[in-house]
User: Fold these one by one.
Assistant:
Number 1:
Amino acid sequence: MDKRLFRTGWHSGLLLALLMSFLVTATPARAQTIQWYIEVLTDPITKAPILEARILSRRGYRFHFMKRDDNSLWAEFRMPRHIEKAISRKRLPTYWIDGNDPVNLESLKELEVGFKPTLYEITEKGIQFILWGALKKGQVPPPLRNFMLGETLHVRYWTSTGEMEQAEIPLKRANEAIAQMLNIAPLKRAPESAQKRRSETFETVARHYLDFCEELRFVGSDTDYGACRSRFVSCSESPDQSEESFKNCLNKEN
């Protein structure tokens, strides 16, 4: 046998084995990194450190919390970089946490004075918006409590071409990251509250899905709304349905 071929084949086999070993060991490690963390930035003028609480989801969605110079608290949502579409400048996103009521950022427009927005800023891939006007030392702004104690952040947004999309962002370690950013202790979860969050009721799941159907009356085709309602009826009539199976049925792709 040609020794050169033998060496080439041996090296190729070794490289393949090493590559497979890397992929097997890297996958769990990567999964563990899908959690909130603190990013330390530097003020360009004072050179003082600036802390931001951030997360990058598995699908590439980003969500940040940051303090501005006037001591206001802002949040930022960004679409994945690989998506070529831009976020809509006409319709602002809606977000909610677990089974809590949704927050429609369109309401910020009603608070604006003048033509130039001051409570939100839209970029090509995302939006920054104000959460709290003035932070006080040692206090947690009410809008942050659900982020710190919740499990999943849901964001419904529209693209510049009018398509509606939805992102799910985990809140794992958001409590600790936000607390570190604000220089406070993490919030404590009551056992009964944690159990309640883990099991969404049929009413909550149904309400969010029917809201989604209603949105399709304005941004979808004529058949989208009917198909959405038909799926809701079909999933609702399935016997022995749990909250989780009901949710999976509604979100199942055709």
Note: The chain has three domains: 1-32, 37-198, 199-254.
Number 2:
Amino acid sequence: MADILDQKNYSGSVAIGFGDVGNGRDYMVQGFCPAINNITAVSFKINSKDGNTNIGYKVWIDTCDANSYPTNGVGGIGGSTEITNAQLVVGTLTKYALATAVNLVIGNKYVMCFAPWDTVNHVFASSYNDWVSSTGNPYAPSGFSGARRVHLNTGYTSPSQPDSGNDDILFETYGAPAFLPQRKENRPAMFKPFGWKR
């Protein structure tokens, strides 16, 4: 079954950078609140990417608190996916499938997490490039007003809310709706041979 669009923010056109070591913007996360019980893909928009073709991004999903501060370390609760430099599309909101779907609880608080990543050696790589963000809080789902863009330092600690303190990146999340069994009255009638009685 094909995945479908769940959460989204299309508002904002400001270039915001992250990914370099030493200024507290080594990692970036974005809070969201799902209406589907899993996540299979995310979309984001970048204005630039590293000139080194080994360097792309790593993406994963995690739980978070009311301020979009991730609960766990790098890798979170699952979905870790390396996106190569060649796969990155500059200037367009682009969908990237997660390596594995992550089960979620509808209405709970989560973050999609991002790190500049050497996809050849599979390690963090300092790489400062621009993504596209809002300068306000256009994405504020019911019950999660603190859904926002947050940055973390080299140790993946000291989360901070940069710039206006209440921004959202341009993003989409996708999920595969759970299979729901047909109601009994809607099931196809079972073939019954002539003369068959129950």
Note: Residues 180-193 have pLDDT under 50 and may be disordered.
Number 3:
Amino acid sequence: MREKAASGTMLILFLAGVSTLAFNIQPCKSTLPVLGTLDLTGRAVSGTEVVLNLAFEALHNEPFWKLRVDIREGPTSPGIKVGVLPEGLELVSGDLVWEGYNNVEHVDIEAKVRAAMDGEWRVQGWAVRVEGSWDNYSALDAMSSKVLTIIVSNGKVIAILPPPSYILPILYIGLTILLAVAVVTVVYVKKRKK
């Protein structure tokens, strides 16, 4: 009987290791040349209003390339919904898009947005180096910021959240496995005492 319990415990520990490896997913790294750094932040200013700030720091000064930096509904891809907020969020002041040439070191976009109703919205920042006209272009390089989630309830901004972490699923799985091992051990001990 002791051998069966030990082999059962070993199986649970083996599965715990395999599941931990399976859920330890790392974000993909871009194979495109890096344009710079891009950071999107948000802060509640009153009731249903949030100030979004997108900061872009260029790594290279390339004055002949066009550059577009924008805040938009997220998550999305480089050429889709440029400067378009999710339905339910409206621009109060500021800008959602900056277009120019890549001869700048820093681009800072600030936009105040208002939630028209209670809900949850996701916004994201993008920097895209383009070739051609602004209306008909091909993206040469692109990078996106993290996706921020804005949550409004009872007419007030209650949270501005960064994307979820990959650590939490691993933690939940680990705790579940530890609980299962504890239950198996308790059942084994009770049966042994009888």
Note: Confidence is low (pLDDT under 50) at residues 15-33.
Number 4:
Amino acid sequence: MKKHIISLLATLLLCIPFAIGQNNLVSNAIQAFSEGKYEQAFEQTGNALANPGRLSGDYIPAAFYYHAKARIQVLRIAMNEGDQEKLSQMQNALIESYFDYKEALKTAGDKLKTDIQNDLQGLYNPILQTGLGALNMANDRRQPGNVRRSALESSRGYLEAAKDISPTYLACDLLGQCYLALQDTSAAYAEFRQSVETYIEDPPNSPDFLVAYVFFRKAIIERYGLQDAPLSLTTLMKGQQVLAKEYSRAQAAGISTEQQQDYENGMKDLTGFELDIYLKEKDLSQKAIIRFQEVLMLYPEDYDVHISYANLMEDIDPLLAIDAYETAISIDESRELGWYNLGAMYNNIGSELYMKGLNHDDDAVADSLYNEANNYFRKAYLNMEEAYKINPNSIYTIRALVQLANSLGLDEKAAFYREKEMELRGF
């Protein structure tokens, strides 16, 4: 028993110098840091942390804390001096310092915790921007696949750290985009939801109208991922309300040209997605009509809105649809879609009238229906020709012109467009 006690005491006595030695490394590092000897402080804290189990008490969080602080200072000096070799060695300095600060927090006292939190806040923007840069590289299709995958993983690490430091709406949004690129839709949706909630609860000092696209991304997942059109519409409407409120705030402070453009683009994109959902959800047709009429009041000169409204009304009220297509064309005659869709509508109406004539027993009535059908076919042909002038490489327009020319007995025109179709098909 006595031998065991003596052996234990000997072991303890041997450990004391090691503990004191490791603690002294930290003390020396703190002194070096206070004297601006950051390389020395970084090296000494690194040596101390090589055997963290031999550190004791407050020296443990202090070692991590000053290792992080010294690393950041070494990085700043290298950046100021343009020391490329040192910068290459310190390329992970930001995220490594973040993890050191997090380790320090585990055992730090209240005073040190406050200092660590303040330092972490200082790292928020650099870490966020590094994560954004990596995300942009991951989305750059010009980069090799392995580079993009590596950048995406790097982006996740930095953006998760940024959100942990400060869960702002921007950090949540960027992290959501990263998860979306990683095909983790559930995680992405959670981040987008937190992002919009954070923006609403604590908006930035200056309105950021790009928040429209956080609502947009959230709505996309709801519409196509969750298959919940009503929820998606609610999100889009909420986004428009937030933008309108922020617009009033920006006007009061003096809105810039860039803010004005961001507001208009964001509002138009949110509204456009909303109208697109209404177009595709047939059970919402009555609500869709009311909403389209409201939007037309807001954007009376918007070509796309008139085209979408015409599309909605084709099966509900063809005459209103024709009127909407004609309005769109009057706004911008240089765009093909209005001419093509209007021509298609006239063709459909003509075809219906022609079929009625075929099925009618009274020859006089049938002839009247045929004449009326031909009038619509002529209108269809004229509109399709306008569409062809704008885009002579559209196979759909050319095929429509071949059919209409045949129906109207325009043999030369039919041959001309058949030849154009063969050319496009490579024959």
Note: The CA atoms of residues 189 and 221 lie 7 Å apart.
